[in-house]
Specification:
With 306 residues, this protein is α+β, with helices and mostly antiparallel strands. The chain has eleven helices and four strands, in the order H-H-E-H-H-E-H-E-H-E-H-H-H-H-H. The chain has a four-stranded antiparallel sheet.
Amino acid sequence: MRAQFVLSEIGVGLRRNLTMTFAVIVSVALSLALFGGALLMSQQVNTMKDFWYDKVNVSIFLCNKNDAKTSPRQCSKGAVTTQQKQQIKADLQKMDIVETIHEETAEDAYKLYKEEYGDTPIAATITPDQMQHSFRVKLKDPEKYKVVASAFDGRAGVHSVRDQRDIVENLFALMNGMRVAALCVMALMLVVATMLIVNTVRVSAFSRRRETGIMRLVGASSFYIQMPFIMEAAFAGLLGGAVACAFLLLGRYFLVDNGLALSEKMQLVEFIGWDAVFTKLPLVLAISLVMPALAAFVALRKYLKV
């Protein structure tokens, strides 16, 4: 009987405040969708870091005959000699942090350039002697790039030492910035959702103040009186959480698999799988249930006193 009464009161409360209940559902859905999206974006950044940091190399570019004019500070003594090349390679082989060494000649670099940019107008002006001989070094620990840089940067015959991580760091910084922005908007939306929940509970409690007063006089406990209001808020929040979960699933489906099909267009990027999305859904649902219930409980402490 008690359970039936509580459920009937929940239905009455939701019907009386239908517009505000809908606003609560929408605000909770948007805020938690942003929250889940920020979590997934953070995991995507970490996945990409693990994927790319394992593949990026440290590149040691050697001086060619043109660099003496264009880069006099690095290549003041002219093009690298055969002896210097051999010595650089030998020194690299002695370093414990080096895993593999790939030597790319100027001719190899020119062929690769023609394959990638052969259709562009500027490609016709590039000649093989303008390309640089280089060593592509894969480190056992990519974080120790500075050891290689300090050993070879400024050395005779060396034009520059570059860590390819710098190329992808800007992308990671952009994605981290987007994640922070999503979290900030999510926090704002959660505040809005909490305020809506509190106001909805207040309106519902005010409209039923007479019934709750009678229940208090006949000996009903505070928990029994508050339960319908708390469950109303929790139910509305749970609906919002379910919508947020649908947003996350649809977002993963249309952005990665279909629609934009980023997995096909960006094959060099390792996207997070469905398992990453599914593991976030219980957390989103838990927050959507607990947060409105707590907000309602706090609001009721004042408005249900008789």
